[in-house]
Here is the input.
Amino acid sequence: MLFNTYKPWKFAFSQESDNIEEAEENNWGIIGVPFDSTSSYGPGSRFGPTTVREASYSFEKYNINFNKDINIVFYDFGNTNVVYGNCKKTLAILEETISELIANNIKPIVIGGEHSISLAPIKALAKSTANDYNIEDMTIIHLDAHMDLIAEYQGEKCSHATVMKRVHELNPKEIIEIGIRSSSREEKEFVETQDNIAIFTTKDTKERFEAIEEKIKKIKNKDPIYLSIDIDVLDPLYAPEVGNPIPNGISPNTIEKILEILSKKNMTGFDLMEVATNRLGDSTAVTASKIVYDFLTLIK
Ligand SMILES: [Mn+2]
Here is the structure.
């Protein structure tokens, strides 16, 4: 690349080359998924990968909040093809792409797109033989206003509202949901019958954060963790442009604290979903981009 030029379709500070054959192993790779076909309220998360990446160019190499430079080697491999209107086909394409990443020893960071697509990277990690673990060892940390644990939504199994139910069917060690403040009775009753789903409400994040900290710290250091963030976990004041905004959410400060705890753990994958704006510089896109930037600053 020439001096004084930049590529706003690639995340800032990512490597120049995105040739997977030349990529260094044990690093992270960004994949965007511009899919929003099952969105039930606010559409537009197909623009998330573009607006989140573009917003990354307003951050410094030095991250003052953590007194750290962003010095990790990571790649931005662009967006996957999607099949609009077809959740299953889109997930199949993404799973194949993520499997290729994992086979090259690169851990996925997926930028959505709607939340249904989280299933594909988790499935790919679960199936991979390149890993020295299986899904029964994996904890999913899920930050969201919603549980996403409904069996079917509008008759569809493949939906943004059902994604954690599908993940749960893969039999992970545990799903820890944080920031919850919206649930159907069906979901709440389902959770009560399961011993590998822990729910921390938005109120819990404010009144007993130490319980969340303790819960995450209890995960063995060698055990893999996948982090899935639906940006609607934040209060709509910070992130108004989301598929399903719910008032009285958490603050970016809480996410910073959770990222700091997680950075000391064995992170195996990360996704950030549901940024639904097509406006460059929109506060939701900037806030989401900052979360990806903080993750990359903190992660080993
Ligand atoms: Mn949600």
